[in-house]
Design goal:
Elements (H helix, E strand, L loop, with lengths): L2 H6 L4 E4 L3 H5 L7 E2 L9 H6 L4 E5 L3 H12 L4 E6 H9 L3
Amino acid sequence: MNIEEIIKEKQGTIVDVRTPSEFMGGNVAGSVNIPLQEIPNRLEELKSLKSPLVLCCASGGRSAQANNYLAHQGLECCNGGSWLDVNYYQSQSV
């Protein structure tokens, strides 16, 4: 299943790894804000979320870092890239 299908079919959880101020400036409805620097300390919380985790940020760089780290921790996740792209895919879901 690709990222677009995961989002459209609400198969996982969208995790935005931007800072809280960036997140407050606009985000995907229903997404969870866990800033990149907090991920190692919030690993148990991330493990409790419905997987796969779809990670997003401003451009895809931080979400790629988060994806790499979480995949090495054994979590099912994927890099959704920009939150704007993820938001677009979600807006296409019925």
